[in-house]
Specification:
This protein has seven helices and seven strands; from the N terminus they run H-E-H-E-H-E-H-E-H-E-E-H-E-H. The strands form two sheets. A five-stranded parallel sheet has the order 2-1-3-4-5, sandwiched between helices. Strands 6-7 form a two-stranded antiparallel sheet. Helix 2 packs across helix 7. The chain is α/β, with parallel strands linked by helices. The protein is 41% helix and 19% strand. Strand 4, helix 5 and strand 5 form a beta-alpha-beta unit. It folds into two domains: 156 residues, Flavodoxin domain (Rossmann fold), CATH 3.40.50.360; 35 residues.
Length: 198
């Protein structure tokens, strides 16, 4: 098999995840792609060692790249932005690109487009990259007694959650998972269709 043919089957997934929500989505997407003929490499750019490993990768070996980000104060993780700059400066015109985020605004299905327009589109404007597919998924917040989130972060997130979800009157001490796994599965199917027809 030629080198070019091998490249057609390699997919890179790079994501940031602060509390594990985006990571779970990225791993779910990888799980579905693993059942296809594609070879998948996945990196969490929030992890210093994985980010170093990602930067050592030859981007040209991949035919398609899927990026995912948690949203912090309306922005992507700094390491994801660094990787986007690397992609922008590379010759990747022949590659398919996809992007997804997990955020609290997208917990409300009626606000998914608003989340994309507020968090994805503006944050990608600085890069000369063409994305075939983008989507915004709801988030997951752990306010349970065993949560790894510190009290200050919990306090901030509770305020955001109440603001973006007016039907909630109070925040209980439990895990709130607002992700629509059918939406995520549909996104993965669409992404698989895009990269299978290159």
């Amino acid at each position: 098999m030629s080198k070019d043919k091998l490249n057609e089957n390699k997919v890179l997934i790079a994501y940031s995840s602060r509390a594990g929500c985006t990571e779970e989505v990225a791993l779910k997407i990888k799980e579905k792609l693993d059942t296809s003929s594609f070879e998948i490499k996945i990196f969490n750019v929030s992890d210093k060692d994985q980010f170093k490993s990602l930067n050592k990768q030859d981007i040209n070996q991949y035919s398609s790249i899927l990026l995912g980000s948690s949203i912090i104060k309306g922005k992507f993780h700094k390491n994801l932005n660094k990787f986007l700059k690397k992609l922008d400066s590379s010759s990747i015109k022949d590659k398919k690109l996809g992007f997804f985020i997990c955020c609290m605004k997208a917990c409300n299905p009626e606000k998914i487009d608003e989340a994309k327009n507020e968090y994805i589109i503006p944050n990608l404007e600085d890069y000369n990259l063409d994305f075939s597919i983008v989507d915004a998924f709801g988030g997951k917040l752990d306010f349970s007694p065993t949560s790894s989130m510190n009290s200050m972060i919990q306090k901030i997130l509770k305020k955001i959650m109440l603001k973006d979800n007016l039907d909630l009157k109070e925040i209980e001490s439990k895990v709130y998972d607002f992700r629509d796994w059918q939406q995520i599965d549909n996104f993965t199917s669409s992404w698989l269709n895009i990269i299978s027809n290159m």
